[in-house]
Design goal:
The chain has 275 residues and is an alpha/beta fold. It contains seven helices and 13 strands. Strands 5-4-3-2-12-13-10 form a seven-stranded mixed β-sheet, covered by helices on one side.
Length: 275
């Protein structure tokens, strides 16, 4: 269990979806990371840092800039953590070591002012999307990953593009509701029962990304705010905080371009959205 330094703070961001087509988003991330990185600071990147990951043997200018940004933040005294998302679950220790962040299991726990905060990418909570959950189970298998990564890079790139294309079709043809967290799965997770059936321990607060539906749910069953806004508050038992996705290159109208959560060791937090 991770604890926030008493005089420090933790920052959380998710779903940045970097690629060669997101130069503005990458620049915004570089500026943000440089602005928050300092001693006594923990920075959590909760998945889908990249739009797709072919393997640690693949590199491009985007990867190199992310490495440089993380290394600079680490040099400033920050400690950085990364959690796999549904797009970059093949990111491995080779890249993590080059960048200078630690790969966390999903889920992971923080202890904040006597409250247990569960942090997760969030895709495992979307249990209504049966097709995706089936693929997730397959693609997280160690043998499957070993066999995939043993293929020539060119073949992996083509396969990843095909999988991504199928995913877009699936998303287009599916009800939007199945792409969101299942409320029963959320309720069970608070009690310690993770969607895969394992008991992981109870939590007071859940923090995740993935759904691109930024919101602060104050009860287990409350609907999400239709227009999330930057806000401040104190962690409360039963809260579920959903981080925003980032898109400075082709931002949707009336949606934030990105944002982050800052959490103090006292339990005070601020959600900042970039409009």
């Amino acid at each position: 269990m991770i604890e926030i330094p008493q005089q420090g703070a933790a920052f959380f961001a998710s779903d940045l979806h970097f690629s060669e087509d997101t130069p503005k988003t990458l620049e915004a991330f570089e500026n943000w990371l440089a602005s928050v990185a300092q001693e006594q600071t923990l920075i959590f990147l909760l998945g889908d840092l990249f739009e797709v990951w072919y393997g640690d043997d693949h590199s491009d200018s985007t990867c190199e800039r992310v490495i440089q940004a993380v290394q600079s933040a680490k040099s400033a005294g920050a400690i950085l953590y990364f959690m796999h998302g549904n797009r970059d679950f093949l990111l491995g220790e080779q890249f993590a070591e080059a960048a200078g962040f630690e790969i966390l299991p999903d889920p992971e726990f923080l202890l904040v002012n006597h409250q247990v905060v569960l942090i997760t990418h969030g895709d495992q909570l979307c249990t209504d999307d049966k097709a995706y959950q089936k693929f997730r189970l397959q693609s997280r298998d160690e043998k499957w990953q070993k066999n995939f990564l043993a293929l020539p890079l060119k073949q992996r790139i083509e396969m990843a593009k095909a999988i991504r294309s199928e995913s877009k079709i699936h998303k287009t043809n599916s009800a939007m509701s199945i792409m969101d967290a299942n409320l029963q799965a959320v309720a069970e997770s608070f009690k310690g029962k993770w969607p895969d059936g394992y008991y992981i321990g109870k939590s007071d607060v859940i923090l995740h990304g993935h759904t691109h539906r930024c919101a602060i749910h104050h009860t287990l069953t409350s609907p999400a705010p239709t227009s999330p806004e930057s806000t401040q508050g104190q962690l409360q038992k039963g809260q579920r905080i959903v981080l925003p996705d980032w898109d400075f290159d082709e931002p949707e109208k009336n949606r934030p371009k990105g944002g982050f959560l800052k959490l103090q060791s006292s339990g005070e937090f601020s959600l900042t959205l970039f409009n």
